[in-house]
Amino acid sequence: MTDRYDVVIAGAGPAGAQCARDLATRGYDVVVLETESEDEFPRQSNKSTAGTFPSMMASFGIPDDVVMQYTDSVVLESPTDHYVKDQPGAVLEFADFKRYLAEDGQDAGAEYYFESRATAPIMEGGEIVGMTYNGDQEVYGDVMIDATGPAAPIAKKLGVSDLKRENHAIGIEYEFEGIDIDRPGFADLHDAMMLRLDHDIAPGGYSWIFHTGEDTAKVGLCYIQNNGHDRYARDGFAIDDYLDHWLDTDPRFQNATRIEGKQHRGSAHIQMPGKMHTDRFMAIGDTVPTVDPLWGEGINKCMQSGRMAAAAVDSCLKHGDIEPSAENLEVYDTLWHREVAPNMQKRLWMTKLLYLAENERYDEFMQNLRQLDDDTLAKANRGNVRAIANLFSPGDIPLLARFVKQEFGFGVGL
Fold it and tell me: Once rounded to an integer, what is the mean pLDDT over residues 26-40?
């Protein structure tokens, strides 16, 4: 076992494992530090959903055997209405998916140090040259990458990726059987991924039902700990309480039972990204905040981030004469903003506006969507200003004024 590599990656989630896959395929010596043991990996999920679209499956060569269910549509629900959009998708068995990424990377030549928790950067001359793990173990490399998600021990100690607690999103999900998938009065959720906007269930966030076959589904919710949540939250309610409330009050769950061992919790940050790199270092995946206002797609964002980081490494190391300095790794930031999260600021504003709206507005939203062009949602999700504007009406002026006051600290005369 050597202690020096071209690239050292902390974290074997979708971002870290994909980055390792790409680098190993290009012939680099890469090692991944993973907290969990090899026998149990992955013991737990740090993603509370695992829905994705065909573009992700094709772009990264993901095999069918990690898919629990292919879906035909996306359903948006409000408290009393719903909207159905034809949209092929895939609900992943997240453990199998993570295991595939790790094994495929190992087959390409990447090494994995399991039971190895990255703890701190090793510095020489003001630059990171390695990482400590498990307290006193050391590993060295030309480039270091933190893919540990919101924990971000290396990034935080280097002053990279400024994660703010007030923008912290938390999620919980269980898998159930016995769900009434086609309940009268609700949308038919066979072969569908459903996202529900309802502050009684997820104040300042959304909940979901992802069909996984027959009468089984992934059921969960998440919310952002920000002003939207503060406005609509119930006193004394934690995230588990909201999920229990939904299970107790939605007739689709009347005969549902939890599948043992199928519980997932996750977290991310919903904010503009801070600094993403410095000399010999990059932060990727959920260590860097990203957002899709409507669909989430966090897995795809993490995978893309890992791929952009691998391209940045390759641009420096492939000729052996370009130092991976902050200046030369700047290409990572450029690729990230172009490929991973274009129009990030506009998408973030849309996300905040969406979760500030009241339940009654969500019901109107479903009616509005039935009158709009099918591409409007996709364009709005990508930050297209005209498409975003088409989602609002003159009645939204008070909502927009409240948003402006919250975001910019001044009021708007009405």
Answer: 95
Domains belonging to the chain, first-starting first, are 4-50+93-163+273-340 (3.50.50.60), 166-269 (3.30.9.10), 344-408 (no CATH)
Q: What is the mean pLDDT of residues 30-50?
A: 82
- Least reliable range by pLDDT among 151-155, 181-185, 394-398, 402-406: 402-406
Tokens 């949308």 locate to: 187
How does pLDDT run across 291-307, given as a tens digit for each residue?
887 777 889 999 999 99
Q: In this model, does residue 278 exceed pLDDT 50?
A: yes
Work out the burial of residue 126: count CB atoms within 10 Å of its CB; fewer than 13 is exposed, 13-18 middle, 19 or more buried: exposed
Cα 127 to chain centroid, rounded: 30
